[in-house]
UniProtKB/TrEMBL annotation:
PANTHER family: CONSERVED PROTEIN, HYPOTHETICAL FUSION PROTEIN
InterPro entries found in the cross-reference section: Glyas_Bleomycin-R_OHBP_Dase, Glyoxalase_6
Top-level taxon of origin: Bacteria
Domain Glyoxalase-like residues, every copy: 36-130, 150-255
Protein name, UniProt field: VOC family protein
Species per Swiss-Prot/TrEMBL record: Streptomyces galbus
Length: 268
């Protein structure tokens, strides 16, 4: 959803002007949490990301941005009225209608159109937003050994192939490849963009959802301990990632990927 960025927005509202103008220029990862828990979510995630909260925005003050020092933001918080929340992507472009048109041609549907941005749903039901690019260029640094750099889409088996095809085609210039396990598929952005996409095929049919992942490199245990001091709790330990629950009840993962590159320990 829209929010704070740098000045001089470059927005084209008259439809598709070129394929390039509808390409993604920046990406935001959204922490979606019940509105009543947003104060707790803001306190936890600002500590985790080394940021400060912006002033609230939106009709009900439901949007805030995690502001780093000296770089562009790439994480935001949204208070939601229904459900327990999760995560979603904001895709920032110069030509919002062009991106909406491209997404719809690939099977997405418009959920909520606005004057210069739109909420959409992928073919499998994953919500995401097309928003104006405000000139953001410099990604935030690694903070205390970790970097929030991935939104993981949890996809039911019946929708998995269609979701992989949709996101791979929606994001030209991104690298679409098989993940480290059969149930994973990575859609990684060009160098410089701050957030990548992981699709995870679930074991059973259930509604689509999403969660956040932090790359921690070899220090998953150290990052976990720091998060636990901030109020998070352990849910499960896996060979290459650790599932956590933040103080608001939202789940997220700590991974062994390199926080500088996003790659696995034996890859770039």
């Amino acid at each position: 959803m829209p929010g704070e960025g740098q000045a001089n927005p470059r927005v084209i509202l008259g439809g598709v002007t070129s394929a390039e103008s509808a390409d993604v220029r920046w990406v935001y990862a959204f922490v979606d949490r019940p509105r009543a828990r947003c104060a707790s979510a803001g306190a936890f995630w600002t500590a985790v990301t080394g940021t400060r909260l912006s002033e609230p925005r939106g009709e009900h003050g439901e949007f805030t941005t995690f502001l780093p020092d000296g770089t562009a933001p790439c994480v935001k918080l949204q208070g939601v009225d229904d459900g327990d929340g999760g995560a979603h992507l904001d895709l920032c472009v110069e030509d919002v209608p062009g991106l909406v048109e491209r997404a719809r041609a690939l099977g997405a549907r418009t959920v909520a159109p606005h004057d210069d941005w739109a909420v959409l749903a992928s073919p499998g039901g994953q919500l995401f937003c097309a928003v104006p690019w405000l000139g953001e260029t410099v990604r935030p640094p690694v903070v205390a050994g970790s970097r929030l750099d991935q939104v993981c889409l949890d996809v039911p088996p019946s929708a998995y192939d269609a979701e992989v095809a949709f996101w791979s085609e929606l994001l030209p210039g991104w690298t679409s490849r098989a993940g480290s396990r059969p149930e994973f598929h990575v859609v990684a952005p060009p160098a410089g963009l701050p957030v990548r996409l992981l699709l995870q095929r679930l074991d059973a049919e259930r509604p689509a959802s999403a969660h956040l992942d932090l790359a921690c490199g070899a220090d998953v245990a150290g990052v976990r301990a720091r998060h636990e001091r901030l109020g998070a709790v352990l849910v499960a330990e896996r060979p290459h990632w650790t599932v956590m629950r933040d103080p608001t009840g939202g789940t997220y993962c700590l991974t062994g990927r390199d926080p500088r590159t996003g790659g696995l320990p034996d890859a770039s």
